[in-house]
């Protein structure tokens, strides 16, 4: 992990990799993230940058690797997946978050190709399946409940470096 992290730094900074920060643009060059539709959200969630530039320290990088590893528990994976899907960082998945998730998953950042009616029906179906307290949003515990019923979730939520 240290070798992969330091290789993302310019040669002159590699000696100080433990204290350096890798810019988001370099993190996104990792083959494992390059094709991930949530690449920008992953960098945002794992970055501890005070500048809010989504750069990563070596510790941030290790945190990301550990969450996406096979040994991470389903609870940890689902917690971070929830944070990644929570585009406005407000602690709930509302209709706007769900629409962005669908657009990312369909490869359409702006337009999913779904009509407004189709998008609304899909979001309604997601909420009917997940929104246990019927408040129109999905909180972390509701999300984790849904994930617990999906055995494929943990195997699909990984990055191998």
UniProtKB/TrEMBL annotation:
<feature type="domain" description="EF-hand">
    <location>
        <begin position="73"/>
        <end position="108"/>
    </location>
</feature>
<protein>
    <submittedName>
        <fullName>Calcium and integrin-binding protein 1</fullName>
    </submittedName>
</protein>
<dbReference type="InterPro" id="IPR011992">
    <property type="entry name" value="EF-hand-dom_pair"/>
</dbReference>
<dbReference type="Pfam" id="PF13499">
    <property type="entry name" value="EF-hand_7"/>
</dbReference>
<dbReference type="GO" id="GO:0007229">
    <property type="term" value="P:integrin-mediated signaling pathway"/>
</dbReference>
<feature type="domain" description="EF-hand">
    <location>
        <begin position="118"/>
        <end position="153"/>
    </location>
</feature>
<dbReference type="InterPro" id="IPR002048">
    <property type="entry name" value="EF_hand_dom"/>
</dbReference>
<keyword id="KW-0479">Metal-binding</keyword>
<dbReference type="GO" id="GO:0005509">
    <property type="term" value="F:calcium ion binding"/>
</dbReference>
<keyword id="KW-0460">Magnesium</keyword>
<keyword id="KW-0106">Calcium</keyword>
<dbReference type="InterPro" id="IPR051433">
    <property type="entry name" value="CIBP"/>
</dbReference>
<keyword id="KW-0677">Repeat</keyword>
<dbReference type="InterPro" id="IPR018247">
    <property type="entry name" value="EF_Hand_1_Ca_BS"/>
</dbReference>
<dbReference type="GO" id="GO:0000287">
    <property type="term" value="F:magnesium ion binding"/>
</dbReference>
<keyword id="KW-0401">Integrin</keyword>
């Amino acid at each position: 992990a240290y070798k992969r992290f330091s290789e993302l730094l310019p040669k002159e900074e590699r000696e100080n990799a433990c204290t350096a920060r890798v810019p988001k643009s370099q993190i996104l060059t990792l083959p494992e993230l390059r094709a991930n539709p949530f690449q920008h959200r992953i960098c945002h969630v794992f970055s501890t940058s005070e500048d809010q530039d989504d750069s990563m320290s070596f510790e941030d990088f290790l945190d990301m690797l550990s969450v996406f590893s096979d040994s991470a528990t389903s609870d940890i994976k689902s917690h971070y997946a929830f944070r990644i899907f929570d585009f406005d960082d407000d602690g709930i998945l509302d209709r706007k978050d769900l629409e962005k998730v669908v657009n990312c998953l369909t490869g359409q950042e702006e337009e999913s190709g779904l009509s407004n009616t189709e998008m609304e029906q899909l979001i309604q179906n997601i909420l009917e399946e997940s929104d246990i307290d019927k408040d129109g949003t999905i909180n972390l515990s509701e999300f984790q409940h849904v994930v617990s019923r999906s055995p494929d979730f943990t195997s699909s939520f990984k990055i191998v470096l």
